[in-house]
Protein 1
Amino acid sequence: MASTADFKNGLCIEYNNDLYIIVEFQHVKPGKGSAFVRTKLKSLKSGKVIDNTFNSGVKITTARIERRPHQFLYKDDLGYHFMDSTTFEQVGLQEELIEGYAFLKEGQGVDVLYHAETETALSVELPSFVELKITYTEPGIKGDTATNTTKAATLESGATIQVPLFIDQDEVIKVDTRTASYSERVK
């Protein structure tokens, strides 16, 4: 058991029969009335972010989660298959548990969050940035870089994102997996 004084970003709590991670919190002490804590909670089951207010000093049940390194192996009809980097055990997970699954490529390292008491996989976190090769894009027009115009590009993982006009086919780019956007060209 913990109280609202123990809140910190990344803390996993049990609330309304679901597991939530605290994304953001703020202690508020108004001029009148009692103090409270305003939070943004992200559900580990659905991925939705909700706003919630707790009265100051309320007891909260914390959940222990473990972050374990895994390597993406392949995708088939049964789901996505990963290998634990320490025990070499393979685990199959459904697409709903993977945030940014469109940017997975074979051999890529990811972190899988496990509920420590039940040993069930909760979610898969990709690195913030991944390097992917462009398999198809329209050729850029020389000298047409004065504006922030973009074009569609298909990546080796199968995802399609918007890239600047000067990016060509077979180039390797860095993609931000949190926003699904182009970050920079890799030399």
Protein 2
Amino acid sequence: MWKDFREFVLRGNVLDLAVGIIIGAAFGTIVTSLVKDVIMPPVGLAIGNVDFASLFVVLKDGTPAAPYASLADAQAAGAVTLNYGTFINTIIIFIIVAFAVFMIVRVVNKARKATDARKEAAAVAVAPATKDCPFCLSKINVNASRCPACTSQLGK
């Protein structure tokens, strides 16, 4: 059983998948930081000093009752909140990741098409350099106007 498991794990596809998942998780972390730390602060500043991560609606007051100065204060009071600012950040993260994946797939598809086109071009049979003489059936050049073996006049 251990041998079968080791063979399964060491197959190329499993290792490729594992590397892809690890790189994807790291990429997700980078994009999350990009959105939270680089994109959203200027957007929030342009809108009027809004921190999207702290946008929320109180659904049920906690102890003490609302108003709460921040999302952290509302959560500390035990209030039930609808955190739509965090949701907006998550949507932006998703859009960036989806666009990055789209661009990667697009590049891979273009490379695959170019490779397929090269394979098809190589597979296309090269035009034959010789043909059979219709009179003596010997091999002659396709551009010959007379057969070198039987000297028959060939039509084009």
Protein 3
Amino acid sequence: MVRMTAPAPARPYTADEFLHMPENEGAELVDGRIVAVPMGSISSWIGGELLFLVRSFLQSNDLGWVFPQETGMTIWPDRPGHVRKPDLVFVRKGRLPGGRPPAGWLTVVPDLVVEVVSPGDEIEGFETKLDEYRAAGIPLNWVIYPGTRRAHVLGANRPRTEIAPDGILDGEDVLPGFTCKLAGLFAAAERAD
């Protein structure tokens, strides 16, 4: 699948302009340019299932806020035309200004982001996004690979590690007490077919 990029504007768009554009749905703003983010149905379903699991966990553990895909982040102060939209975002309680989600993009560096790899994701662009998350200081990133039934865990101050298909995603000190068996997540996706 070819990643579609909107024609370059006469000048780069700002994150605020992008927020009010209908083109922002299913797209990110990369240094002022609108870039479509293709999403496969299995990848989307896995992201939604993980959102459900984290949200359910948070009902009994008031640890913070979880946001779905299409929640944009503008956490790079030196890049006013940059908005990324992970498949899941978690921000610990007490970190959002005013104690609640903003009306626009998230401007607080999240504590956890999740990316679920889709068939249309280009490796180079995807790795660039992960590097940006590290540089922004996001402590915990989960990258889920439906094709291989594996996941990678990385973050601002840690090397990338791989979780085997029979392994467990662990919230560690970011989401203490939260765990998710990868095998169960992928099995649920197969039952959804």
Protein 4
Amino acid sequence: MNRRQLIRAGFVGLGAAILNGCRSGQVGKVVKPGDQQMVGSHAAGSETFKPLVDEATSSLLARHATPPPQFTTVSTPAGAQGPEAVARPPMRICFVAVENKSAEEIGDFKDQIYQVIDTRIVETHVFQPVNKRFVDAGLEQTRMRPDQLFLPANMRAFVAVMEQQGQPFDFLLYATLTSGTTRQNQNYQRDYLLTMEMVNVRTGEYDKQSATLTKGYHKTGLFK
């Protein structure tokens, strides 16, 4: 092999080594129950939203989970009549929206938060959610945004439309995600707040529940 061929072979080998050294790949891992969850390095993730949703939803629904018994008149074997308690059907909740007012774009987590809250409602066996397709259709027909439904006249109009669809409900539910940021040089702390607001459409009674979670973000190599 002459000198020119040797140099050419050397460059080819060096190029192959560089390419092999720079080659990267991506792998995935199924996170099983009990495994440590991945923590978002720049924004909130499942480690933030899951506990917020669980705490706010369970606390709010628990306060309304014991409705007063209903009574009906029944005949006894002796012919006398008297009241008897009967099981009340599940109270229906119209969950209209999750509004993001935080400093971050939450992307596909917005729909996931909605679905998780909707599932928590079903799991109570006391409440029953109105299907989101009917909710969206009702909002479109009334031409209202979800946050406009808290005006009494708008709420009455929306309730009437939902009843026309065969989807009456007892409570209106609305969720809002907000955040507050505290900065220290290049590090910062963000306080996330999920607020659930619920209105009894029959009585106008209003209730709300919040859950908060604080998370710190740090630049690598800086003092923590």
